[in-house]
Specification:
Elements (H helix, E strand, L loop, with lengths): L6 H8 L6 H20 L10 E2 L28 H14 L5 E3 L12 H10 L3 E5 L8 H7 L3 E3 L7 H6 L5 H17 L5 E8 L6 H13 L2 E6 L4 H10 L5 H7 L6 H10 L13 E2 L5 E2 L8 E3 L7 H10 L2 H7 L10 E5 L5 E5 L1
Parallel strand pairs: 1-7, 2-3, 3-4, 4-5, 5-6
Antiparallel strand pairs: 7-8, 8-9, 10-11
Length: about 350
């Protein structure tokens, strides 16, 4: 237990009252509808859902992620608030009705000391922001919540030793303690930030671990969203298309997946005729303003300088290089599909099916 009293009573005791409902619901609605449109390949309000990577380095080495590979953290960096402002100014002129942006990709946003100012810049430009953090280092967490990002995603994959099994370098206690601090900061600043715990489901974490994290989310008033754990697709794609070996770290993660790589590839091929929901998640601007072809991949790179290349030209480059066509021919655009339904059998065992 983080707190002895429920959230509503804690707010009353702190003299904070209730948050204004309409602005928060409006921002939540915009984010939800934008995500709904993106996943279905339709246009809603804004034509594209951009990603701006504010941190290209990470404090974890997760074995299912590109950043868990040897040397991956030696080549990244951080985006300054000044650069972010330039990127947003260009983006707002090229994407009509720009209303939301993802502020994470491969790195950990909380390692960037400019993150609170980046959030404030987004607000000043009328743009909702979503941040994802592993919550291992909470030193800048209060400053982040004071700036009030619209959505904060906090991924988790178990408790105790199971947490560190796949979130390599992390500790369950640090994550749990920072979740509790997060609740306190939200109350302190009367923040409307929506907190979502995405629970990455493996074969080994569907019983006590699942129950514990779901219960903690409920206690803190946070959303709980179970998703399929998966290997990030870039190395699998290169294995399928170019016959490159999948790294050993990812093969270790594969042994724990509910649907291992072989099954997921078969599922992807069966669904290769469906849309690529990443086509609208564009442009993907890295920490150094390079533009990645896809927000699920580090390479190929369309340009090293987003600020110098118009959006129309970026779109042309993405089509002309043929990479999307090759990816879709192999069904790889449906590989990283993590949506899932969870049911409980009569014997109490959870059963996970693809949504």
């Amino acid at each position: 237990m983080c707190f002895p009293t429920p959230p509503a009573q804690r707010r009353q005791q702190a003299g904070l009252g209730q948050p204004a409902d309409f602005p928060g619901l409006l921002r939540q609605g915009v984010l939800y509808l934008s995500a709904y449109a993106s996943n279905r390949g339709v246009s809603l309000l804004q034509a594209y859902l951009p990603t701006i990577e504010v941190a290209g380095i990470c404090n974890l080495r997760c074995i299912s992620c590109n950043m868990g590979q040897p040397g991956a953290n030696k080549v990244g960096g951080l985006m300054t608030a000044a650069t972010y402002r330039q990127v947003m100014e260009k983006m707002s002129t090229e994407i009509p009705f720009l209303n939301s942006v993802y502020l994470y990709l491969w790195g950990e946003p909380l390692v960037n000391p400019d993150l609170p100012e980046i959030i404030r810049i987004s607000h000043a430009m009328g743009t909702a922001s979503e941040v994802s953090s592993n919550l291992i280092d909470g030193r800048r967490l209060e400053a982040l919540i004071e700036a009030q990002p619209d959505v904060l995603v906090a991924p988790c994959s178990g408790i105790g030793e199971n947490f560190a099994l796949t979130r390599t370098g992390g500790k369950w206690k640090e994550y749990r303690d920072n979740l509790c601090k997060l609740r306190g900061y939200l109350d302190k600043y009367n923040a409307e930030t929506v907190v979502r715990i995405t629970y990455h489901m493996y074969k080994h974490n569907l019983a006590e671990d699942y129950d514990a994290v779901e219960s903690l989310a409920k206690e803190l008033g946070f959303q709980f969203l179970p998703v399929l754990a998966q290997i990030f697709p870039e190395r699998v794609l290169r294995h399928v298309i170019y016959d490159e070996p999948i790294p050993d770290e990812m093969l270790r993660a594969n042994e724990m997946l509910y649907y291992p790589i072989k099954d997921q590839l078969a599922y992807a091929m069966q669904n290769k005729g469906r849309i690529c929901f990443m086509m609208k998640v564009f442009p993907t601007v890295r920490w150094d303003t390079a533009v990645a072809h896809c927000s699920n991949l580090m390479n190929p790179v369309l340009t090293p300088r987003y600020l110098d290349v118009p959006l129309d030209e970026l779109l042309r480059l993405r089509v002309d290089n043929g990479f999307c066509a090759s990816c879709m021919d192999h069904g790889m655009h449906r590989f990283f599909d993590v949506s899932a339904n969870v049911t409980t059998a009569d014997n109490g065992i959870r059963i996970v099916t693809r949504a």
